[in-house]
Amino acid sequence: MTKTHLVWREKAIGDTAVDGLLAGLLGGALMALFLVLAGWLTGVLPPATLAYFDPARTGSWLTGLLAHLAVSAIYGLVFALLLGVVGRIRPSAARQLWVWGLGYGLLLWLVAMGLVLTAVGAPLAQIPAWQFGPAHLVYGLASGLWLQKNQ
User: Fold this and answer.
1) Which H or E run contains 6?
2) How confident is the model at residue 112 (pLDDT cuts 50, 70, 90)?
3) Do 99 and 44 form a contact (C-beta atoms < 8 A)?
């Protein structure tokens, strides 16, 4: 039986960026689905959950969803570019991208809880931490798995 190891392929920065955008979109979609289901189970209707993401604070679920996906794609891009740097510096560190994804999701959650939600008083603060934290882990895990698959 032969063991296979993932080897970090040198990719053009544009390919890495596209992979990151797609990973972020996938992660963001699954995160939104998680939050909608968790909210629904606690009595919050799906449009109300998505409206928390509306940056204009008009209560539009569609604007909230699109804004969430846009931000998720940008965070995915940043994640992929960071992993690209790590993979070039130390290829062995870029093997288990799902673990990096969980760490990245945790970091995003901590930043959101510590800076974004407290500083600007965003409607997102209405989402309970026990839903918001795992949702970020779902985001990171999905993004990491997507990037690992496309490595």
Assistant:
1) none
2) confident
3) no
State whether residue 90 is helix, strand or coil. coil
What DSSP line would sit under 30-52, residue for residue?
Answer: HHHHHHHHHHHHTT--HHHHHHT
Q: Is 4 inside a domain boundary? A: no
- Residues 63-91 have a mean pLDDT of 91
Q: Is 22 part of a structural domain of the chain?
A: no
Q: Which range of residues forms the domain containing residue 143?
A: 31-149
Is 17 contained in some domain? no
pLDDT of residue 46: 96
Residue 74 lies in a domain: yes
* C-alpha span between 19 and 81 (Å, rounded): 9
Indicate the number of domains in the chain. Answer: 1
Tens of pLDDT, residues 132-141: 999 999 999 9
Helix axes 129-149, 13-41, angle to 10 degrees: 150
pLDDT at 13 (0 to 100): 85
For the packed helices 61-89 and 129-149, what is the interaxial angle rounded to 10 degrees?
50
- CA–CA separation, 106 and 92 (whole Å): 22
The answer, as to whether pTM is greater than 0.70, is yes
Dig out the tokens for 127 from the structure: 């989402």
